[in-house]
Known about the structure:
By secondary structure, the protein is α+β, with helices and mostly antiparallel strands. The protein has 4 domains: 3-70, Elongation Factor Tu (Ef-tu), domain 3 (Beta Barrel); 107-182, CATH 2.40.50.100; 196-431, P-loop containing nucleotide triphosphate hydrolases (Rossmann fold, 3-Layer(aba) Sandwich); 446-587, Bovine Mitochondrial F1-atpase, Atp Synthase Beta Chain, Chain D, domain 3 (Bovine Mitochondrial F1-ATPase, ATP Synthase Beta Chain, Chain D, domain3). Helix content is 34%, strand content 23%. Strands 8, 18, 19, 20, 21, 22, 23, 24, 25 and 26 form a 10-stranded mixed sheet that branches. Strands 1-2-5-4-3-6 form a 6-stranded antiparallel barrel. It has a 4-stranded antiparallel sheet with strand order 12-11-9-14, with no helix packed on it. The relative contact order is 0.10. The mean pLDDT is 93. Bound molecules: adenosine-5'-diphosphate and magnesium ion. Magnesium ion binds at residues 233-234, 256, 260, 324.
Amino acid sequence: xxxxxxxxxxxxxxxxxxxxxxxxxxxxxxxxxxxxxxxxxxxxxxxxxxxxxxxxxxxxxxxxxxxxxxxxxxxxxxxxxxxxxxxxxxxxxxxxxxxxxxxxxxxxxxxxxxxxxxxxxxxxxxxxxxxxxxxxxxxxxxxxxxxxxxxxxxxxxxxxxxxxxxxxxxxxxxxxxxxxxxxxxxxxxxxxxxxxxxxxxxxxxxxxxxxxxxxxxxxxxxxxxxxxxxxxxxxxxxxxxxxxxxxxxxxxxxxxxxxxxxxxxxxxxxxxxxxxxxxxxxxxxxxxxxxxxxxxxxxxxxxxxxxxxxxxxxxxxxxxxxxxxxxxxxxxxxxxxxxxxxxxxxxxxxxxxxxxxxxxxxxxxxxxxxxxxxxxxxxxxxxxxxxxxxxxxxxxxxxxxxxxxxxxxxxxxxxxxxxxxxxxxxxxxxxxxxxxxxxxxxxxxxxxxxxxxxxxxxxxxxxxxxxxxxxxxxxxxxxxxxxxxxxxxxxxxxxxxxxxxxxxxxxxxxxxxxxxxxxxxxxxxxxxxxxxxxxxxxxxxxxxxxxxxxxxxxxxxxxxxxxxxxxxxxxxxxxxxxxxxxxxxxxx
Length: 588
Ligand code: ADP
Ligand code: MG
């Protein structure tokens, strides 16, 4: 074990004179409290390390001891249902956003191990050793670590074990022995290996219309949510955590203030899972690194979070990782870099900001795990650009690595139009890929409908500019109708309250039904206007209100009510054109 003596220390950064070899990125223990740190630079016999815990009281002369392994976190079944700091040390609930310095503990929770393989079998990384069943009944897989292989020389019997228990021993090809414990360590900055990365043509279903129907993100894809303060990033991430169709949720609160995090910490343990009726926490891992916690740990926390996500992906599960917010992470990177005395680049961020963001987002993927089957990690990162300026470095670099961009708009948020995602500033680069999926889920016209909605919204923006100059009433009737229809796209489709019982989550079938209903309305309205009906008469139709309110009023399991609305549209539009015919006849 190598040792070094601190020569200089400032906040989370120290320089120490080494008396033995250290490796780049090696984890270290610092001072009497054995604070966790990481070697970030080696200059001859001097090492530079960042420390992930509060260094108050640490002085030159204190000892730094090498860990012989890179910064790693414990991965095991006890992750689900719990709250951790950025280095995966357990936090004790909402009030105790605090960990004893030097802690490395796992909870004392026990799991029932059910072996699925026998002594004498030869296994490779990812092979299934057995199942781990929690007291709640939730079962997880126990896998041979990705980098291990050999013959099983011993495996424990079915029974209850603590998380640090050794469950099997392998004899490796070189004749050595390697133990496999229930909890395994993995270095946070190294992506976990997979059998194959797969192309993804299936969206992560979020239950949010503006996302699934307009700007979908792939399972295994990556999305960015940029938005100024108070535009709804946190509410949206929480809505996704509650409503998306992932098997496991990893929620990372990164550098947000303790009281904002407290909302998540307070609320999540009380939520029920709409899919199973059981507590949502049973399939959730929360990682909290609030603004009052050591800044270097925040830098590591996004890699810890994605490593946890990969751990579940490797069991053949679909995982969604929500990070709130990557801007606070980038600020930590900037602060630590400043302490190193590195030359600041754009916006004061170090030049490697972009490659570090890439390291994070590129770990999102749909994969064939080593154990077979399919698993995925989808990453959704919030960005809080200073003064809502999307040209700043974190937003612009993130755009290079994310395919879906969900831009939150201050004006929409101020108008309390939620989710405040701006349809003209947002995009989904691989939307076309999802047309077959939508066709299999009730909407074989999805691409065309989506295009029509987006075109209406584009036209609306253009016509509103024109209307400001010449007045709304001076617009030709067709254009007045366009404005009205675009209004319906906004109010009857894109708007969706996170606090409405029916509309909090909208299943794909209902999204498709709502799209079809609106298109029907647009078709009938266009025909009516072509036949001479005044747009003002269309806006007065009694059916407009129920169309606008369909999202709130009609639940996912009441799709037949859309058929009634279709009939109602037919009747009311027919009456309009009939009236027109009578007026014409009376004129003759
Ligand atoms: P940010 O994280 O971007 O600073 P928040 O997510 O905390 O913003 O949202 C600020 C406030 O806006 C919330 O407290 C809530 O009142 C309102 N809000 C945001 N999104 C929604 C939504 N989808 N439905 C209803 N209200 C919302
Ligand atoms: Mg927030």
